[in-house]
């Protein structure tokens, strides 16, 4: 029995430049942070000639090509696995903007390598997860979720025009790190629209050379680099202001990014102690992330609006094997 976990994530800056429709022309840059909310995968050899897949549904098939869970099917086919049982659990469900699909794929692949007793580097693990989602399944997603799930931490990623990714930890002090954990707060706004729909819109516009979309993404990359400077300098108030700018531009980038309710909640938070924030993920719902020095005031305001908070700390482990029995 192998049990693996991979972290979910919050995006810090530069999101959207991790899609090939952008980085193949301009290169990409983003900062992402893994949090202590995880996807768990268990894998074990079955005693029957069946593949047993347990998630929100349950499947039992003898032909791996007939597995309905698309990511599980492609990963098993890619590695030529014989009959196995795969079980998945998550601290927070899919469709909430925390990169669960990428975390699931990374955790599944890490479990498969452990099951086969084969080594795998962190970069290779992340890139193989990207290959499954982007190439085999043709999902209009980027590389952020897979890479941060594999690496963990608060990490900067540079993507060249050929798609090669370089990862480096964000060089911040322990004091700044603890300040972020104390003052960044997450509130659940409801399930988001499909990331594939929202990112598909971005990809289509980028591929068509839509000037507004390209300029918006270039602005977000520049803002991401400014966020990196602010965080390294320990100026978390400046980070909050830059995050606010990011959210305004992200909201303008796609019609499905926000809605009247989310805008109302965000404005209420800004009027009651928040210095900046944004929706985490592709948009349309999910988690509202806010930076607030007066966290009590923001928490009280959000509670009055019926929003549930999810408290978190950062995860510096990335995808790891928990049990190898």
Largest sheet: 8 strands, mixed
**Overall pLDDT level:** 93
Outline type: globular
CA-CA gap between termini: 5 Å
Low-confidence spans:
none
Helix and strand element order? EHEEEHEHHHEEHEHHHHEEHEE
Determine the strand fraction and express it as a percent band. Answer: 25-35%
Number of helices: 11
Work out the helicity level.
40-55%
User: How many DSSP E strands?
Assistant: 12
- Helix- and strand-based class? alpha+beta
Tell me the Rg in angstroms. Answer: 20 Å
Oligomerization category of the chains in this entry: single chain
Which features characterize this protein?
eight-stranded mixed beta sheet, four-stranded antiparallel beta sheet, 43% helix, 11 helices, globular, alpha+beta, single chain, 325 residues
Description:
The protein is of the alpha+beta class and 325 residues long. It is built from 11 helices and 12 strands. Strands 1, 2, 3, 4, 5, 6, 7 and 12 form an 8-stranded mixed sheet that branches. α3 (100-115) crosses α5, α4 (122-136) runs antiparallel to α5 and α10 runs antiparallel to α11. The longest helix has 22 residues, at 211-232. The mean pLDDT is 93.
């Amino acid at each position: 029995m192998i049990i693996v976990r991979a972290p979910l994530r919050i995006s810090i800056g530069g999101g959207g430049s991790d899609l090939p429709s952008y980085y193949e022309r301009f290169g990409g840059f983003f900062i992402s942070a893994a949090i202590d909310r995880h996807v768990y995968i268990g894998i074990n050899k079955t005693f029957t000639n069946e593949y047993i897949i347990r998630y929100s549904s349950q499947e039992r098939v003898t032909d791996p090509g007939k597995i309905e869970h698309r990511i599980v099917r492609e990963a098993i086919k890619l590695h030529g696995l014989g009959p196995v049982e795969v079980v998945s659990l998550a601290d927070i469900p899919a469709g909430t903007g925390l990169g669960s699909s990428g975390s699931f794929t990374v955790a599944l692949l890490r479990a498969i390598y452990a099951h086969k007793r084969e080594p795998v580097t962190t970069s290779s693990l992340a890139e193989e997860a990207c290959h499954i989602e982007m190439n085999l399944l043709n999902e209009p997603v980027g590389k952020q979720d897979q890479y941060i799930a594999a690496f963990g931490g608060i990490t900067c990623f540079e993507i060249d025009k050929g798609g090669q990714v370089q990862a480096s930890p964000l060089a911040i002090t322990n004091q700044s790190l603890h300040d972020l954990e104390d003052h960044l707060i997450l509130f659940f706004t409801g399930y988001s629209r499909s990331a594939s729909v929202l990112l598909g819109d971005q990809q289509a516009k980028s591929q068509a050379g839509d000037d507004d979309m390209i300029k918006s993404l270039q602005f977000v990359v520049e803002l991401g680099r400014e966020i990196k400077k602010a965080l390294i300098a320990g100026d978390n108030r400046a980070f909050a202001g830059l995050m606010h700018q990011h959210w305004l531009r992200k909201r303008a980038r796609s019609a499905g990014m926000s809605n009247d309710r989310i805008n109302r909640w965000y404005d209420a938070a800004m009027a009651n102690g928040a210095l900046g924030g944004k929706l985490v993920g592709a948009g349309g719902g999910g988690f509202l992330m806010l930076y607030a020095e007066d966290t009590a005031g923001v928490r009280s305001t959000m509670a009055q609006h019926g929003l549930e908070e999810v408290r978190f700390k950062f995860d510096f482990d990335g995808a790891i094997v928990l049990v190898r029995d």
